[in-house]
Backbone:
């Protein structure tokens, strides 16, 4: 076993053409110059607000959107792949290794298929099993891991609650025995009492099966509890990445600090102002020059308006993309 | 503080093909002027249906029990909301004394009419005023909720505004008729966390300024802790606990409220395991007998939970819980 990261990206960009006429054509950079490593067996969290590019980055790792700049690699014990150039049989092979769990368990499951067929479909499509008995055995094995019983397999999705449906989606994603899972807002549509159950299930499965997760979420308290590493995105850029505890203890980027202080506290006497951000997230088609966050940053100086900071890694695994982070360290 | 709305024994069923479905069961609460009540519950708990009942806004297949009473105390004396029959009578309540803010601001504005025209229209319906005066008030309100360049926004359509901006416009519209009760149904759920913090601050300022009553419906206990004076917790149509916000959040009495709080990921203790409320929310078609929560309750004390409906029992000053745990305490 090598100690290469399972997923690594350098200068990764994903751009979409917008506008149809030849006069009004521009490129929307949904993900811009992102470099990160996801170690094997880690539960890597990706947070950001809407339009920050977190979903697009997750899809880029799955080759579900074209990579337009930089590169992303996937390396397990058997293969070492350049994700951007995969095609044909190599891509089919990669699909077995990397899978996606969707956000909305109501939209992700076909209402016309039984739960057994839903879970078995990836096996049949990828030709991973030879006989029906073998397929059934695999389906039963994974269903049991996801706490679904045999009775459940015969039913249709409409008979299930949100939490059960999400467990079905998880079973479907895991049935091909992937190494890498992208979970995109997988608990966002669930009620609080159910959310904890699905999070615990994901953690258990990750430990038991030795999986690597990219967990995309907008909910900081959820990622704080599940992920060992975090990356924060803003307008397509990676602004900060660190081990979870370190990030929560001492965030370095003004945006990360503002995100943390915007979480509504459970303490009714703590109705503090904190550091509230003014203004709104700029449109991705009309990005500000310099640091993308300067229009809302409380710490902005002239340099931020013209020069874009690069992701700086001081060697402690806590990288940040801000001109002023060192001088801000002393200030609370 | 004076009494604003008095809800007594509200029971509401929906006539459907599968028979009568109980959505709200024997719910009683009061709200004073200038008081913010948080209404918490998971999907299907009946919180939105309860709020809509206050404006007599539920679908035609809604059946109110004869014991249900909703008395709104207006300047012209008490109004029995459920006795209002036609649209003309209901105008006093809908958009007049009570305004509502919905979760999805995009769906609440007519897409083909400018924001301004919609605001002017509702002002003219409820007040006897000229178009010019209505426009003046609307622009003033847009300015008050922190929308920059309000006279320009007045002539724009909903799709031209960002999510946070739209929700502000919605709040401006709801408040322009100076309602005495504002119902906010998940007003920040669709917003990003930094924008949510802005909208919560705005709503707090407006309560102080207009001195109205607010029902804040949400599933987010953090938002409740930050905004509400008192809290009512609903589960499967039952109001299972209500009391002052500090008491309910710090010393929850009902096992469901306790479970809900334990299921929340907490930021100050990342090592604490997430403890889900066991099981799934029963379908409203199969309401459990006795206490509706007994199928998931970790503290069932015996058959009484399965057979007898618990009554609301005082557990502190203005704090009550509907649970047999507390009935036995007082009996012995």
Residues:
């Amino acid at each position: 076993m090598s100690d290469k990261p399972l997923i690594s990206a350098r200068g990764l960009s994903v751009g979409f053409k917008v506008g149809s006429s030849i006069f009004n054509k521009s490129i929307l950079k949904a993900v811009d110059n992102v470099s990160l490593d996801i170690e094997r067996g880690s539960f890597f969290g990706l947070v950001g607000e809407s339009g920050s590019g977190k979903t697009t980055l997750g899809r880029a790792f799955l080759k579900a959107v074209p990579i337009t700049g930089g590169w992303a690699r996937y390396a397990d014990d058997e293969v070492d792949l350049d994700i951007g150039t995969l095609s044909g049989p190599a891509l089919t092979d990669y699909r077995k290794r990397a899978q996606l769990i969707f956000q909305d368990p109501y939209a992700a499951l076909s209402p016309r298929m039984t739960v057994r067929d839903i879970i078995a479909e990836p096996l049949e499509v990828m030709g991973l099993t030879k006989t029906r008995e073998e397929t059934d055995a695999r389906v039963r094995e994974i269903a049991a891991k996801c706490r679904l019983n045999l009775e459940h397999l015969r039913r249709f999705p409409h008979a299930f609650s949100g939490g059960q449906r999400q467990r079905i989606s998880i079973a479907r994603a895991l049935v091909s025995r992937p190494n890498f899972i992208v979970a995109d807002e997988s608990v966002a549509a669930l009620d609080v009492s159910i959310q904890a159950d699905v999070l615990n299930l994901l953690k258990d499965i990750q430990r038991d099966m030795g999986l690597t997760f990219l967990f995309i979420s907008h909910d900081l308290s959820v990622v704080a509890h599940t992920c060992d590493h975090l990356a924060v995105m803003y307008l397509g850029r990676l602004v900060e990445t660190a081990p979870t505890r370190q990030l929560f203890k001492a965030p370095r980027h003004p945006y990360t600090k503002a995100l943390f202080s915007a979480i509504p506290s459970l303490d009714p006497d703590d109705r503090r102002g904190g550091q509230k951000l003014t203004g709104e997230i700029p449109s991705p088609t009309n990005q500000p020059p310099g640091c993308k966050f300067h229009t809302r940053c409380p710490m902005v100086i002239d340099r931020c308006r013209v020069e874009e900071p690069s992701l700086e890694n001081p060697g402690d695994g806590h990288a940040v993309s801000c001109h002023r982070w060192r001088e801000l360290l002393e200030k609370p | 503080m004076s009494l604003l709305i008095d809800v007594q024994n509200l029971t509401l069923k929906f006539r459907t093909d599968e028979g009568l479905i109980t959505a709200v069961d024997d719910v009683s609460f009061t709200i004073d002027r200038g008081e913010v009540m948080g209404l918490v519950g998971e999907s299907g708990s009946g919180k939105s249906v309860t709020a809509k009942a206050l404006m007599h806004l539920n679908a035609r297949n809604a059946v109110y029990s004869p014991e249900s009473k909703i008395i709104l105390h207006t300047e012209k004396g008490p109004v029995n909301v459920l006795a209002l029959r036609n649209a003309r009578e209901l105008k006093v309540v809908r958009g007049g004394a009570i305004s509502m803010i919905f979760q999805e601001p995009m769906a609440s504005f007519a897409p083909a009419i400018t924001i301004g025209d919609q605001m002017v229209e509702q002002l003219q319906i409820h007040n006897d005023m000229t178009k010019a005066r209505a426009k003046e008030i609307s622009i003033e309100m847009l300015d008050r909720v922190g929308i920059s360049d309000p006279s320009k926004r007045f002539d724009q359509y909903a799709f031209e505004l960002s999510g946070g901006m739209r929700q502000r416009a919605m709040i401006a519209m709801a408040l322009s008729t100076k309602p005495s009760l504002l119902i906010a149904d998940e007003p920040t759920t669709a917003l990003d966390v930094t924008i949510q913090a802005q909208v919560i601050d705005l709503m707090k300022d407006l309560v102080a300024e207009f001195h109205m009553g607010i029902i804040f419906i949400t599933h987010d206990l953090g938002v409740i802790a930050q905004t509400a004076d008192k809290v009512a917790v609903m589960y499967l149509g039952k109001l299972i606990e209500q009391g002052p916000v500090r008491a309910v959040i710090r010393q929850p009495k009902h096992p469901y409220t306790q479970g809900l709080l334990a299921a929340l990921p907490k930021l100050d203790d990342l090592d604490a395991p997430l403890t889900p409320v066991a099981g799934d929310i029963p379908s409203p078609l199969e309401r459990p007998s006795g206490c509706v929560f007994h199928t998931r309750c970790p503290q069932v004390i015996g058959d009484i939970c399965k057979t007898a409906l618990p009554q609301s029992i005082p557990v502190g000053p203005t704090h009550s819980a509907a649970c047999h745990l507390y009935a036995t305490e007082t009996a012995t």
